[in-house]
Design brief:
Strand content: 15-25%
CATH architecture of the largest domain: 3-Layer(aba) Sandwich
Mean pLDDT: 89
CATH topology of the largest domain: Rossmann fold
Order of helices and strands: EEEHEEHEHHHEHEHEEHH
Shape: globular
Distance between the termini: 29 Å
Largest sheet: 6 strands, mixed
Structural class: alpha/beta
Strand order of the largest sheet: 6-7-8-3-9-10
Radius of gyration: 18 Å
Length: 254
């Protein structure tokens, strides 16, 4: 294993007769961005769902900073510091950017303190506002704080989703194809933001098809194909691997 962070040990997920994830073992440390790549249908999103507890695991275990999460539900895993984003963005279009981002820390605090569903003290409200402001600034969205999310571009909406996750105070993030719909300049900006975020110790496991993004932010990658781990190693080694080329990279590795 590659140090403290997210640990997956011999994880298997079966849907009826389909073995979607087959004894996958990987480790993604804090303070780094680790890649999880592979063709469509390889089991990447299912692995994410198993990590967050939204699909039942057939066998294996999931840990976060050496704390076993295997018997925890989704809410408990989030409270332990494991967050994620989705291929299909889940934002509230009628709300402002600032309101959407503030929902992250609000939900985190409400999950820990049930009474905060009814009333939040001034100090807590100030803390939520500060977290949201910091995340907006870090993602370059401060000037859009009072805009409705429905009026934003796809690239801006992706950053709103990231800002909300960062404001939530998670220790580890699962990012599921975050560059989908972004142009080259937006993708480069996204890479800068997540690279800056891990400098504080945040860990990221990145599922992504944009290999330029993966190459720019990931030093270490895992490759899935048909639910099985077929490669792990440095990005340079992955690009030179015949197994990876045959399964996924093809001419993109050139």
């Amino acid at each position: 294993m590659r140090g403290e962070g997210l640990g997956i040990e011999k994880l298997s997920v079966r849907f009826g007769g389909l073995l979607a994830v087959d004894e996958v073992t990987l480790s993604a440390p804090g303070g780094a961005i680790t890649g999880l790549i592979g063709p469509n249908g390889a089991g990447k999103t299912t692995t994410f769902n198993a990590c967050t507890g939204t699909v039942p695991v057939t066998s294996g275990s999931v840990s976060l900073f050496e704390h076993d999460l295997s018997h925890h539900g989704p809410a408990s895993r989030a409270q332990s510091g494991l967050g994620r984003t989705f291929q299909r963005m889940e934002l509230f279009d009628s709300m402002t950017v600032a309101e959407n981002v503030a929902l992250g820390p609000e939900a985190a605090l409400a999950g820990r303190h049930l009474w905060s569903h009814l009333i939040s003290p001034p100090r807590q409200r100030r803390d939520i506002a500060q977290r949201a402001d910091d995340a907006l600034a870090g993602c370059g969205l401060s000037h859009l704080g009072q805009h409705r999310v429905r009026d934003l571009s796809t690239g801006q909406r992706r950053l709103v989703e990231l800002a909300r996750a960062l404001a939530s105070g998670f220790r580890f993030l699962l990012l599921d194809e975050p560059s989908s719909g972004l142009d080259k300049i937006e993708t480069e900006r996204f890479a800068e933001i997540i690279s800056g975020a891990v400098a504080s110790g945040l860990g990221i496991l990145l599922v992504e098809h944009d290999m330029a993004l993966v190459r720019s932010v990931c030093e270490y990658v895992y490759v899935l194909d048909f639910g099985q781990l077929i490669f792990e190693g440095s990005m340079a080694e992955a690009q030179n691997s015949e197994v990876v080329r045959a399964a996924y990279l093809g001419s993109e590795a050139a």
